[in-house]
Amino acid sequence: MRKIDAKERRRISRRVKNWQEKWRGKFKEIHHKKLDFVTYSYEENCLYINLYFTDKTNFSLDFSLTEPAIVPYAIEYGDVSTGDYENIKTYLLRKRT
Description:
Shape: extended
Structural class: alpha+beta
Distance between the termini: 47 Å
Radius of gyration: 18 Å
């Protein structure tokens, strides 16, 4: 394995930082939130993942597994403080096939 020189290390660090910033900005509502717990379930070729935060908000990721790959079909952010889910923002919503 070859050594990485200082110039290449700086280039790699810059690319990693840019990649992290891209993803930090993608879901701004959940950045720096304290995670309370995570739930997941699988039923009828669908995977559901829910992230619950201490401020009673929820980040929901729903995936379809019927394709040759895992395909996201719903990504939502909502409020669950009243016990019922109220959608705040929908990032992605695809029709199910």
